């Protein structure tokens, strides 16, 4: 039922209502509070959560009947709503069920249970690693969530260990060598070295959450959450028409808590794209503190720019001069026949050190080589 409510929120947003992630969470909480025994109360709860103007109030009734009536009929719902089985409003939703499904922490029917834990077969894992995020079916979503969190954690953990154990050696430190060996009384001399202390790279992640990135944004936020969980120096920002810092939200103990924190931020989800203006805001507000020769800056965007290309070029040039490496991950690059010829992407290419896809789990895991 929670899945159907989320689908309904997406449906009304595509048909004139302005609600986003925050309103979807409010809708789930409202239904959790009033229950599902009375269809009228259920309708009023959703309307209160999703409508913020007289115009939206007027649209809501028709959209509600159109969605839920077709969903209850079954056959039409199967065609219109991702071939989902018919759902009927009959019973109370358990308190935690809604958020468990919304945040991808519930297990899917495609997984097999073994020894009390959920596992996915090797062939299914391989298939899901290569599936484009925009083509993931509802049946596969939970399994992909499980696989991606595990593999991204493993990748981040390996990277974290490599940054700590550099094994660098410089000149022999005579004073420390003598002090270390004077009490040993043996002929074996153990050398001590002195060298410039190695510092781990800082990661700065800028994630596009505009409308053209809808199919990928939630997976890429999860990718940023996992990196931040294992790296000490990570700063993450969302942008569409404005820039929003989400570093503190992603420091939550669980992904569910992170989503709740993100829902409170006015991040411009599914809005337009002004990459140049967002980068200008970043350079002005955060560039001095975050950009240096040990910084890896990652931009996750499809490159659709509605602002001025000259501003985008100027801001990317300013970033390029100050960082160690500028990485641009574009989900569309994984599409067969794609060419980066849009004005935003073509403007950005001369400033990019690494241009790579980010359309599926396998492409995100490949970033380990660059980091």
Care to describe what's here?
The protein has 371 residues and is an alpha/beta fold. The protein is 50% helix and 11% strand. It has helices spanning 2-14, 21-34, 39-50, 54-73, 75-80, 97-102, 122-130, 138-164, 174-181, 214-230, 247-250, 255-263, 275-290, 309-320, 343-348, 361-365, and strands at 112-114, 117-119, 171-172, 193-194, 202-208, 234-239, 243-245, 295-300, 325-330, 354-357. The strands form 3 sheets. A 6-stranded mixed sheet has the order 7-6-5-8-9-10, sandwiched between helices. A two-stranded antiparallel ribbon has the order 1-2. A two-stranded antiparallel ribbon has the order 3-4. Strand 8, helix 14 (309-320) and strand 9 (325-330) form a beta-alpha-beta unit. The chain is globular, with a radius of gyration of 25 Å. The two termini are 41 Å apart. The model is unreliable at 75-119 and 164-168 (pLDDT under 50).
